[in-house]
Amino acid sequence: LSVDTFFGSLYTFVGDANGTRAISFLQHLCETLSKLGIDSMNTAEFVENIIQAMPIALLQLLRREPRTRLNLDLACLTGTMEDTTKTIAGRTKNLILPITLRTIQNIRAIVALANESVDTVMSAYSRNLAMPRDRHDNDKLDITNIKIFPTLEDIMSDAVEFLPSSDPDQPHYLEDKVERHIDTCFRLHRHDTFGELKEALSFLIHTIEDDPTLIQNYRLQPRDFRAFYYANAYISRISFDTRRGLEIHPRFQQPTQLRKNTAAGRSKWWRESKRVAEGILLSLIVIGNDQVQHLFFNDSGTNTNTREDLNLVKNNSPCTITTKLVSHNQTDIISVVRSSCEKFRGVLLEFRGVTPATFAPIRESLQGMQRHSILPFSQWILPDKVDSTKTVNVPMPLYTRRPASGFNLESIVTVL
Questions:
Q1: Which end of the chain, C or N, has fewer beta carbons within 10 A?
Q2: What is the pLDDT of residues 330-365, one digit of tens each?
Q3: Judging by beta carbons within 10 Å of its beta carbon (0-12, 13-18, 19+), is residue 5 exposed, middle or buried?
């Protein structure tokens, strides 16, 4: 957070009052790159890095400095960026084109949304709610039918997610205040965990669908979301144990910085970095039968013992870890078995800080309460509106109503 403060100051300086300084600089940079001759591999790599960094910097500026979104020169700049990217990609024959163009599309979407907000001023009281109506397989009116983890259709859908207001005076399709409260908590809590994660995965999967060869490109990583990328991943085998249940063993390449290291060095690095820690959320994206497939896993334990077969550090071997499916539905199990048999290859993502054990039980409890329409202490959590002309009588707790009951105040009272 301390570092982020300095970055914020930097973006404020670069952006100027409404982004004029940054937009002028990026426009000039694009024009210069378009005229630049590429005569060596070093020059090509340098130019490609700049091309990729420009839209990312502009996207961060728009998010940190909202006034920049209203700058009238943004449309011209995004057009110039797109033309420059296509020109450079044609010269270098690299894979930067779809990645950079999708970032530019995100910039245009943010600008368009800001302009709509200016043109149409809407009341803060009345909200146009995007009602859930089976727009994809996880868009359900009843939260008890919503899967805890996003499905592939859920991730890929462009439908606006239904996010009700926590203000009881705002509109909602449920009339019962208990059911409405549970519904709101579930949807907002789920969005808080998976909102940005779904956007990152959607960008990644859309890019891979546009060009499947990008799935092995180490530069292709989720934007604006902290995740570790492991290439050439596939399901090596599936095991079942009466105590541990169904376990899946994904295998992937050692990270680049470890491939020339010794087994002891790799073991130390994995332990100290705390990568693929137990309980962390993992995502496997593979291509099979010309279709992109996606699965969520929960790491059930890593092994850095070089003497065992399933570990992260064995000499001249890829890394192997042990995982479990986050949901054991028939579709996911069939997909896992098919991927294992046919050795579909792709990429494994590790989402740091996303631990299913910290939120899945909460959502399951909310679904259980909604299923039975029961909320403990609902009269205190959701009290009726108070009439200011009446005196509110709050009864004493039951444990204080016994004869001769009292409170010992010696710990807070000093007798002089």
A1: C
A2: 999 999 999 999 999 999 999 988 999 999 999 999
A3: exposed
**CA quadruple 310, 315, 317, 321: dihedral positive or negative?**
positive
**Residues in contact with 87: Cβ distance below 8 Å, sequence separation at least 6, in sequence order:** 34
Using the 8-state DSSP alphabet, how is residue 257 labeled?
G
The answer for residues whose C-beta is within 8 angstroms of residue 257's C-beta and 6 or more apart is 269
Least confident of 61-70, 182-191, 204-213, 390-399: 390-399
Which pTM value belongs to this model? 0.67
Q: How far out from the chain centre does Cα 291 lie? A: 22
Q: What is the CA radius of gyration of the chain?
A: 27
Segment 195-204 mean pLDDT: 91
- Residue 151 is given by DSSP the state P
For residue 376, give both structure tokens.
């403990």
Both tokens of 370, joined, read 């909604």
Contacts of residue 92, defined as CB under 8 A and 6 or more positions apart, other chains included, come to: 38, 44, 47, 48
Q: Where are the alpha helices (DSSP H) in 167-305?
A: 177-210, 263-273
CB 65 within 8 A of CB 9: no
| Tokens 């409260």 belong to residue | 181
398: region left, alpha or beta (phi > 0 left; psi from -120 to 50 alpha)? alpha
Contact 362, 186 (CB under 8 A): no
CA gap 324, 122 in Å, rounded: 46
Closest CA to 302 of 283, 284, 321: 321
CA dist 244 and 324 (Å) reads: 9
Separation CA 150–CA 351 (nearest Å): 14
The per-residue pLDDT for 14 is 74
Domain residue spans of the chain = 3-120, 227-352
- What is 227-352's CATH topology? Elongation Factor Tu (Ef-tu); domain 3 (2.40.30)
For residue 252, give the 3-state DSSP assignment.
strand
Q: Give the length of the chain.
A: 416
Task: Provide long-range contacts, Cβ within 8 A and 24+ apart, for 162-168.
Answer: 162/129, 162/130, 162/131, 162/132, 162/187, 163/187, 163/188, 163/191, 164/129, 164/188, 165/127, 168/382
Under DSSP, the state recorded for 219 is T
Q: Give the span between the Cα atoms of 233 and 282, in whole angstroms.
A: 12
